[in-house]
Design brief:
By secondary structure, the chain is mainly β. It has a domain of 120 residues. A hairpin with a 3-residue loop joins strand 5 and strand 6. The longest helix has 11 residues. It is elongated and about 90 Å long.
């Protein structure tokens, strides 16, 4: 969720990898500045069975464009994803490509009627919250090791991909009917001799 302009945090550290300076951009609408760098993945990028390891290297390309309300940022990033297959629970390694476009408003335009959104802090722009949100939304909710993954056996939990087509179990007997089965003498292999009382 975008941070409120009214509750801006402490001064940003310009040495952080996801903090960008807008000094080269200026405030003239239409001016543009681009940067490409490799940054560590933000913390807590997790959704269901998939997540991006904290600190993993991510190539990031950022284009900043000055507009009258602030700075329009367009960014693309590629992040490694570690997950578990939703069908067989085997480890899955993938990558996700995200593109985001957000407006960072000038801090001087804050006021009681200011809408929630991302804000510049002086001449610095913190891309981490916006990138975090874009990564979480891009994660697969049900990752698969392969599209035709057969999953696990519902009886014994064996991997059906390794068990083969001959894997199976005898028909399960409902315990409520076990007494009737013993009385009639029938078993899973068919009818047997009736039991005398």
């Amino acid at each position: 969720m975008p941070q409120s302009r009214k509750n801006s945090p402490a001064r940003l550290d310009p040495r952080k990898p996801l903090v960008f300076s807008i000094l080269d951009l200026g405030r003239s609408p239409g001016s543009e500045h681009s940067q490409t760098r490799t940054v560590p993945a933000p913390a807590y990028v997790q959704a269901g069975l998939a997540g991006v390891p904290e600190g993993a290297d991510m190539p990031l390309s950022v284009r900043m464009e000055a507009v009258s309300e602030g700075v329009l940022v367009t960014a693309t990033a590629t992040a490694p994803v570690t997950a578990e297959c939703a069908r067989c629970l085997e480890p899955v390694q993938q990558q996700v490509d995200v593109t985001l476009q957000e407006l960072f408003g000038y801090a001087a335009e804050d006021g009681p009627d200011a809408a929630d959104g991302y804000a510049l802090q002086g001449d610095l722009l913190d891309l981490e919250p916006a990138l975090h949100d874009a990564l979480v939304l891009a994660l697969p909710l049900a990752p698969l090791c392969r599209e035709d993954c057969p999953g696990l056996c519902v009886e014994c939990g064996a991997l059906l991909a390794q068990a083969g087509p001959d894997h199976g179990h005898a028909p399960a007997i409902d315990p409520r009917w076990a007494g009737l089965q013993q009385r009639s003498g029938s078993g899973p292999d068919g009818p047997g001799e009736p039991v005398d009382d």
